[in-house]
User: Fold these one by one.
Assistant:
Number 1:
Amino acid sequence: MSTPTSHFAPLARLLHWLMAVMVIAMLFIGAGMVASVSERHEWLLSLHKPLGIAILLLVIVRLIVRFCTVTPPLPADLPAWQALAAKLSHYLLYALMLAMPLIGWAMISAAGDPVMLSGSIRLPSIVAAHAETFAFLRGAHRYLAYLFFLTILAHLGAALFHGWIRRDEVLDSMLKGRSRGT
Amino acid sequence: MIEPEPPHLRKPPLTTAEKLARLGGIGLILLIAAGAFAYVNGSLDPQRLTPARVVDVFEHSNGVHPGFRRNHPKGICVAGYFDSNGAASALSSAQVFAAGRTPVIGRLALPTGNPYSPDSAAPIRSFAVQFTQPDGQQWRSGMNSMPVFPVGTVEAFVDLLKATAPDPKTGKPDPAKPPAFFAAHPEAQPFLAWVKTARPSASFVTETYNSVNAFVLVDAQGKRQAVRWSLVPAAKGDAPAPDAKDYLQQDLSDKLASGPQRWDLVLTLANPTDPTGDASKAWAGEHKTVNAGTLVVEGDSAQLDGACRDINYDPLVLPSGIEGSDDPLLAARSAAYAASYMRRTSEVGQLEKPPAQEKQP
């Protein structure tokens, strides 16, 4: 466990890529949903809620995996500001993965609406019905979604910068395991 | 075993041109991703009808009355219960149809866009109802006293709102626009024929309120039956409306002082050929109906501090056993109500001050 590693653990990589697909899908579903007045609105909403709860459950698993596995260090020659940006943006991504589903859940609760995950499954409300609370959470859900998307773009840009410009081991540490060449 | 050198140490350095090309590639990927997002959220398409743009049309026609619903803003909260007789439980597995009582929070309202409209401004009244089942699931229904909707799609409805909107120069609708709209929308004929005969009622309690849209009841075996429903009043009366600005609220309080007010919840079962996806079309001919029970209203309260104020009567908040139909207006109502709810809940602080208009006689 304590030996330095050059790659993320297989489970960490699986969770990363699975959640990458889910979170990006989620952001597009959310953006499309609130911009639609057709049946698509209902269809996307029916995907959005269960997918959000799935992300909430997975990010908890992911945080446990993160704390229980060794993560590869950043390259030693990385400028300090880039190392700091990497660290902070990862904290932000984890915080958003955790907060967005909770805010969505709390927001529906604050509206006094039943939190329906499907036509028949209802989750309990986690916040008392209150109009101002709803308005605040609804605004937060929207603006944090934009922040989430921008952070993912920055994350993607940085990953490609490591892989194509710096050509260090950072991108490979998430793309593949240690099997090759060792 | 010897670790190989990190690969980047073995690679020849990038030329400036190569570096620029790769940076450009990264930039292009990010731009495509951001562009896809902007396309999906409607930013690149100002013509797309979004929930926010539907609500904008209401605000354009009616002005903005902060904290109020963007449509049907003048209303009264009511409370009571639904006493199910169990007759509809053969059609739907929803708990609300099992014999017994379900608490109800409702709202009686005017279908205009201004919270200070005179009660006779429209010959239509609306009744929104929220049933809360023992399992916590809810059924919300926004009903109107008209039998059919003027049009069948949200696009046509927005065009109707625009055709009847006041001209900013004159403050009145352009007289040429409504005839042009109705000439282009023959589907509005059933509504127009009805509205010609409709008069503003003197009371909320003598009105029949219709779901207008179709829904689907699903029984415990999964069998589906399309329905429309109506609240049919126990109180009868067709007295003309008094010559006053506000009379419905006083009438309701007077009626409730003499006892609870009742409506039968009547389900109209669709025949196989009935259109379920078009609220502008009546279901003609013989129909089987089921009286599911009695809605009893026991008390009322002003909407500004009543229990109905913060309820979004979204017609697609449905319990297991009731589903939306293929009527496109249902999704449009749900989406637009959410946009209206988002706006007004952020303005509730502004409701505290009594508006100047209310002091007028």
Number 2:
Amino acid sequence: MAKANEIYSRLSKTRPKTLNKLEVAHSEDKGRFTKLSQDLVHKIGTEEFEYDSEMQNSKKSAGNSDIESAVVHALRAKILRHEILARRSSLLLMRANEFYHSTMIRMIRDARLGIELDEDKLKIMLPPELKDVLLESIKGTRTKGLLEPILDEAKRSEN
Amino acid sequence: MINWILARPDMKKFLARSGKKQQLIIAERQTILLQKRDELVRRVNHAEDAARHISLRRSRGASAQEITSLRSDMQEPIAGIYSILNDYTRDLLWLEIHRALAVKGFVLPEELTLLREDIDFGLLSLEEFEGIEEILEEDNDPFSEIEDSILREFGL
């Protein structure tokens, strides 16, 4: 965390007027990333709903021995899965930037008030939502077996 | 850590461009992406038409042999979907990432380690951008567990 100290040290030597300008700039940047992240979350939510719907339809078709329709719904689900995966990658970058600007704002405020940098506090600053996105992104790469329940249904109806 | 952004000359070049030029490049890529998506949807619809036809024939008492024969009609659109899907996904990932890069105030992921050294960027930690293809190919095949006999019928 030595580098965070370096940033803080630099900030603590900066004039208050410049710090104010810096804070405004980081606030504007953070606002942009927050807005874009929210838009992406909404889009991903819609796609996940559609994905669930396709999965259910695929399962239903397989249960009715309509394997061909089950395959078509599974294909649509697969496309949606790829789209969700790509958007989550972008969301990760947006959230990481939101976190960066947010942290900079806090450090600027601390520097202006002369509050010493607490490295432990900085360590726990990673917001839960970013942690969730990171986990989800990693989960997104593990899609093997995603459609296994449907395939089981398909196998059962074939027998 | 995500070092591929700096490692890729095209991304470095993109970051160096003006905001207006960046938006122009994104708009061009979006047009191409939408064309690919339209084609993808067209091929899925083609497969769906074939599936409906099989369902109709089955409801009218078609024999198992006939159904098996009709299933081969789905092979072409399914093969077509597979041939375009990874390409489409790679383009979409490119577009989504570049949309983020083009936001005013974007900070390179490398700089984030100044604040947190232990951020794990998961999928984005890929050394090569193209690595996405291998991941999608290996980990996202929903038909990997289907019996071989059924897979053969669909040409998969």
Number 3:
Amino acid sequence: MELVVERGRRVYVEELNTTKLLAHARQQAVKRNFDDILIVDCDAHHYENENYSDILPFMENDVLRQVTVSGRAKGRHNIVPSQAGFTQDMGGRVTRYPTRSSEKTDPGRIRDVQLGERWMDAMSVDYSCLFPTGMLNIGLHPQKEMEVDLCWAYNRWLTEKVLPESGGRMYSALCLPFSDPDACLRQVETFGDRKGVAGFMVTTVRNLQVNDNAYMKVYRAMEERGLALSFHSGPNWSEPVFRACNRFISVHALGFSFYNILHCTNWVINGLGERFPKLAVIWIEGGLAWIPFLMQRLDNEYMMRPSEAPLLKKKPSEYMRDMYYSSQPIEIQNLKAMECTFDMMDAKNRLLYASDYPHWDFDLPSTIYDLPFLSEKAKHNILGATAARLFKLPPRNAKQQENLIKYGNLAA
Amino acid sequence: MAEKFVAKVSDFKDGDRKIVFDRDKEIGVFRENGQFYAYSNYCLHQGGPACEGLTIAKVEERIMPDKTSRGLFFSETDVHFVCPWHGYEYDMKTGECVSDRRLRLKKYKVLQKGDDVYVVA
């Protein structure tokens, strides 16, 4: 198919075939024997907006369902807020965006599962935590009740249609309608015990305080059930401070880290680590460079102002080291800085590999495996063993089992 | 060094690209403005198929004598090819990674014999 580039010139690119596009990823996996390592991708995506005709019927409220379905049928409005200027595809340079609809899948099976299996197999990923794409902006929806109902519909569709068809290889942290704490609790109580639900996810592009008393019942319900709480970050060009940016690269580079920094600060300073010591908390897609920054920044201020954080029994950085972080997008530009970051965050026990595929800045498992300063045990832990323990994911072959036992991640 | 047949010149339109496989090597051969260029098809970033994405003009920003910007423009002369995985851009004439020109894809020699195009792999 042809894509239009500068001044109307057309360039031929092949129709999308994920397996073919990722052929070099498969080569890497074979060369490194990745099939022998249990690999868990704790942040992969699908395009739920391409499935609205299946999702929207699950909305509970007749009026809201009618509004979304009718508006969609005539192409009149977006269901979830979208943001102008979000050129994830770089003007078509990342060709899997404009060619996505050209990829062929088998009729009779859910397309998103088939596409997921293709990239997982290419990368030798055993399990993927599946997140939506457009709904990462659900926190920007001006109607709280619409946010609640859309999350409800998506969570039902995902747990009833998608995850069961993945043969156990896909799991999820379901979308929480964070604008409505009561609705959050209801969704935790309704979906928390379903197969493939490892926890719940808060989209961080919000101005709500994670330490608000209204959320304590939600966190407690998750902690009691052994569910993980993930914060998935994102950018927001409409945020007043980011209106000062004139390029998407700036909004993107800052935004993902910014929102994680914002909410992680509130989480730590308000002693939520003390209040919910058994709740696994995961910070997703902010990269890693913000972690040592925030550790140093909060520790320095806490030493001078402990009376503003009286629940803390140790330094903020130590609470941060009790939490988990996804690896992508890993900023491999300065290996010394990266090694220091890994050390500060206790990466061998707290870092979880994430691909973020099929988004434009995805990372392959080799980004972790090839780091020269990591021990074999650390590589195995980060690529999957830590997540496997956290989410109770079994090895998929004997060699993986052997490696889990070898590195102390599974009882012999 | 073996000569590997790429294509007939008559089957290789200007602006086209072909991928040649030779044992464990993958080489992308481009025809751009009448010239042939050949580079390793393994991106220096994460190993993506560097030669299988778009070719697109270099983007330039015009700065006036008073240092004000007149915005972004496509170059009239310079062409990049782009790794489709993450968007790493390479200079068509040199194979340099344009965001860090110290990085450069392996370049291969292209031979034209009559109507046949070969790459020296």
Number 4:
Amino acid sequence: MNRDEAKIILQLYRPNTADAEDPQIAEALALAKNDPELARWLEEHCARQNTLREKFRKINAPAGLKEQIISEQAAFSKTKARREKYVAVAAVTAIVVSLAFLSQFWMPSGSGDDSTFSIYQGRMAGVALRGYSMDLTTNDPAQIRAYLAQQHAPSDYVLPAPLQKTAMIGCAVEGWQNAKVSMICFHTGKPLPLGQQADLWLFVVDRDSVKNVPALNSPQFAKVNQLITAAWSLGGRLYFLGTSGDESAIKKFL
Amino acid sequence: MAEGVDFEDIVARYYAPLYQFAFSLTRAEPDACDLTQQTFCIWAAKGHQLRDASKVKTWLFTTLHREFLGARRKQNRFPHVDLENAEAELPAVSPATVNHLDAAQVFAALGQLDEIYQAPVALFYLQDFSYNEIAETLVIPLGTVKSRLTRGLARLHNALTEIQPQQPKP
């Protein structure tokens, strides 16, 4: 190592630090001990480094910064804890509600379980209201019946006379427990919102697949979700008809 | 958070040096405060992932630097310049000249350097980090640290010579 090389290495030397332990710097420092010119250069370098280090460290953090950091973090932690508490409560509530809902399907239908029929009603009304896709789109009742038979869904349904005169537009097969439900879609002739094809829906299923069905020898009317519905039983089939409006709106199809 | 490390203790121990580093990078008090605060926010959220309590200091400085670079990139003001194998540029400034400068002038000179030199030089003077610690903090190789320091210090010293020292008040 010559003097110029030593100067280059010592540029990174900071006095009173661990830099002297670096092997290259240690070698350069050793060289300076025997080289008066290099020693003078090193003395000036150390003075400059010390002064610069002092200048750099003159910048002080503004008063109150530490307290601000701590207090803001405390406030954030409090908000976070509160939010986590709300999330936990909401999660527990959601689980309880879900379990309550699911238990209606999973619990054995003992003598106290009289809700199965109403669940069926709600489910089918939901299918009609919240969207479905028709498996077959046609206004031919024979094709609809044939399609449903092919799908092993109820196809021997008997329609009330007024309903026979209402325009069919298609059908779909839905599921209920392990049974198939025939869904027949009608258009009553009223203007329909854009994208909607049907405004009257008939669901037919094996009566035995739905628990706790009342006698239903004559149509029973009920408001389910936003639909007015009629349910009746005939020939081992359970019929469930729904449309919008009031009871008179559905009675004219029966 | 690293085991046995309390948030308030960490703030008390490191907020001042972190602020100095932040100031050396931004040269604006509000930006330096924001950067320091943001670093501790990240520590509060992610500090628990640090297993080695002895690495807290490096972790904080690395985080602050990373946040600074992230903010710069968003402003599209970060020049992508890399320089290795810097040639020696011996400084010309005398200790007497430096002695007549105030801290603000020194930081102004630091601000004239390309950004790749600013962080190593600031850490070099502010914290007495070893070269390895600077490399670890800035996530760059040791050789790169040394070359950036060599050139960065030379340019800082040259910039300091161009600054008119403050005249003593009568």
